[in-house]
Amino acid sequence: MIYYEKSVSSEQIYSGKIIKVRLDKVEMPDGSLADRELVEHPGGVGIVAVTDENEIILVKQFRKPFEKDIYEIPAGKLEPGEDHRECGIRELSEETGCRADSFEYLGFMYPSPGFLDEVTHIYLATGLHRGSAHPDDDEFLDVLYVPVKEVRQMIMDNRINDGKTVFGVLKALEFLKG
Amino acid sequence: MIYYEKSVSSEQIYSGKIIKVRLDKVEMPDGSLADRELVEHPGGVGIVAVTDENEIILVKQFRKPFEKDIYEIPAGKLEPGEDHRECGIRELSEETGCRADSFEYLGFMYPSPGFLDEVTHIYLATGLHRGSAHPDDDEFLDVLYVPVKEVRQMIMDNRINDGKTVFGVLKALEFLKG
């Protein structure tokens, strides 16, 4: 059965540098009206980069919403009109200095589909060649090479909590298993 | 190394029914200033419910940000002050009519840690007893019992894209494997 929520009005609340916020009034399947608070985001790309030594590259960086630094896979936001594959290759290079012989698409994630239109594309990068990182001016992060087995343990022990990282790593491990 | 971004000012942009939006000016590790657009969300709980017949319960519901219906595990937002375990038990009952003999904590997820403070707690529910669902007035959803093997295939084929669902199911399968 398909339920549809038709917008009967839409009010722009905020238009920022990264996000936009709007409030829609929608007609529910039973004809009643409901409010939908919606956040628009440009989306991004995360990269599960696995070395020939069976390590995964993690970055540790401060995240303001939690006032602490957390572990994530290398990732970044899409520039307007940017192809997500190109974005992934660019972000992996900027954050880690690596380029990859193989860059395979693992699918996309909706981080919080109830109110947020963000889409995060995930790639698996292998055949890595190290170079020097060149992060953006406002990016401060540590780059870590962690054995796959240890990353899996960090996920199971709740030391890695970032959605795209768990989504990407567990999917990559299933993919590599064949 | 720890990088910290201290807020030097904070401006409330929007305070809605579910989300709040604020704009912080932060001092970066090198002393420069940067803007941080931040969304506050009450957080929620997702439940990976596995039947004795080795099926996972999925719900299919319309999600306004994508203008389509998508597959997710049963889930819901935390009420103010609500314990996340109680919330999980309540949401599983409301959306599917099931109660569970065993309700194990699998950890928490940050859906989009760059700008969103939402935390999603994940539980594994087993020993299920079916009853009748009693969704909220503004919830319209279909409840599906899908074999574990098929859910795994739907994840690998990109037919399931919800972050908490992939995070929860793949982590639950690792957990059940031991």
From TrEMBL, chains A, B:
<dbReference type="Pfam" id="PF00293">
    <property type="entry name" value="NUDIX"/>
</dbReference>
<dbReference type="GO" id="GO:0019693">
    <property type="term" value="P:ribose phosphate metabolic process"/>
</dbReference>
<dbReference type="InterPro" id="IPR015797">
    <property type="entry name" value="NUDIX_hydrolase-like_dom_sf"/>
</dbReference>
<dbReference type="InterPro" id="IPR000086">
    <property type="entry name" value="NUDIX_hydrolase_dom"/>
</dbReference>
<dbReference type="GO" id="GO:0006753">
    <property type="term" value="P:nucleoside phosphate metabolic process"/>
</dbReference>
<dbReference type="GO" id="GO:0005829">
    <property type="term" value="C:cytosol"/>
</dbReference>
<dbReference type="GO" id="GO:0016787">
    <property type="term" value="F:hydrolase activity"/>
</dbReference>
<protein>
    <submittedName>
        <fullName>NUDIX hydrolase</fullName>
    </submittedName>
</protein>
<keyword id="KW-0378">Hydrolase</keyword>
<feature type="domain" description="Nudix hydrolase">
    <location>
        <begin position="40"/>
        <end position="168"/>
    </location>
</feature>
